[in-house]
Design brief:
The protein is of the alpha+beta class. It folds into two domains: 107 residues, Butyryl-CoA Dehydrogenase, subunit A, domain 2; 132 residues. The chain is built from eight helices and nine strands. A hairpin with a 2-residue loop joins strand 3 and strand 4. Helix 1 crosses helix 2, helix 1 packs parallel to helix 4 and helix 5 packs antiparallel against helix 6. The protein starts with a helix and ends in a 15-residue tail after the last helix. It comes from Streptomyces andamanensis. This is Acyl-CoA dehydrogenase.
Amino acid sequence: MRVLGFYERDGHSDASAAWESFTSVWNWAAPLVTALPREPSGAGPLVRGVAGGFSVSGQWRLPGGAQPGPWLALRLTAHPRGSGEGVGVSDPDVFVVASKVLPAPPGGGDAERAGAVFRLADEYVPGGFATSSAGTPLGAGDAVFVWAAVAGMAFGAARRLTDALAGLEAPGAFVPPAAAAAELAAALHDERLSLAARLHGVSRAEPRERAAATAVLAEQVRRASRLVHQVVSAAYEYGLSARGSAAEDPLISLVDDSTPILQYMRYAVDLLPPDERTPTVEGDTR
């Protein structure tokens, strides 16, 4: 509950800074199979920023004996960056992709893929699918913490949008922005209460009941993600209708700032499930 509240305040204050801080402090991709650059001492992979995320190119090697699973982490350097390396250690250097983007191994089959070298060219990675190896590694046991943190940031960022929408002036609008903002904020409030109740249930569950309670929470996180996406989309549309063009929309920068959080939250349960018993059915980014 404290995590949800802390990160909600963070996301409401500055969604972009909240996400940057979260990914610099916590490496949420640590439990995923990690591919390292093919040539650790040579020219490494290249990353450039694009709209909504990154474009990643380079060659990587899968760990020997490891199967990638649904998701694969690509690291830019052979070793995690430490806090003593100077400026920039918090910049993203771990990028997560769906394993199905990997080229098919010669002969086919996962057995031939283990330890294989593969190349990606201008592979799009959403901004929310990047983190820093300098952050503290998280594990499957930290899933509920991550869900609460990211949901908090998402609720806060969406609430910031409704605040901005309420301040718009649109004389003669069929639905005044303030009225639309109040309705959207109420939907956020109700969904947050539902999620908080589920979090409370997990924290109070007996050990034998925790797996079932966590599975219910996972579905609640998915539901909250859908609701937050709908609120952000609706707020943007109301703002656009009040101003007439995207260039005049004061909400666009807030939408951009919240995009990585929303991208990650959509797949939060799939990217970091607590264990193999928690259902993950939405792990597809393409």
